[in-house]
Amino acid sequence: xxxxxxxxxxxxxxxxxxxxxxxxxxxxxxxxxxxxxxxxxxxxxxxxxxxxxxxxxxxxxxxxxxxxxxxxxxxxxxxxxxxxxxxxxxxxxxxxxxxxxxxxxxxxxxxxxxxxxxxxxxxxxxxxxxxxxxxxxxxxxxxxxxxxxxxxxxxxxxxxxxxxxxxxxxxxxxxxxxxxxxxxxxxxxxxxxxxxxxxxxxxxxxxxxxxxxxxxxxxxxxxxxxxxxxxxxxxxxxxxxxxxxxxxxxxxxxxxxxxxxxxxxxxxxxxxxxxxx
Length: 277
Description:
Order of helices and strands: EHEEEEEHEHEEHEHEEH
Largest sheet: 7 strands, mixed
Strand content: 15-25%
Helix content: 25-40%
Structural class: alpha/beta
Shape: globular
Radius of gyration: 18 Å
Number of helices: 6
Number of strands: 12
Oligomer: single chain
């Protein structure tokens, strides 16, 4: 049994505001061990449940946040940016039996601690085939295309509610309760580690590959907080204006859709000015 962990940071234990997740800040340094603890607890739980192999794919910002030296020695970690499938890199090789979303969060335009979709700001909404989409929903559709079930999701309480929509059978662990985008009632790392480990052990029983889901075509629509960002997005072939401050594109597969999404967000981020957006 091989488990892939997609590890994001905004939904980690104790994380509540931008300084907690921005590489290089003192608060980021303080929160890295908390993030690592969540991921390690998930790995240990999967091993408790019978997993033979756990691969952790770093999925936050620079994708160089976890402390490798604090992970269980059996774990392997994929770190660094510019991976073909970004947050779910590694799922495409046919040897992954299940995926876990650790430290996830709600999507742009939704309530939730540090809610966003790919870009920390600028994007005010994302829709997949008409349904508001978080990173979790987008990545779950990619996983389904490879026959891989989502078996565990951790984050704030609203992230767990969001996950009910795309992974109803998955185990969910709320490590904090949403108060505002930058505030939460947080559990201690000892408690969240125990909760995550127990849930991962249960989730291992759900690690059964299924028939790949061919659900295309997929139409992705993005809404931005400024018109010039929508214009910038149309540089990507296939992305066209779809409304005020909106662009949309259609892909035959989620593999193509998520790669185009990455291209769009990369172009848009380069068009954002520091003060005026």
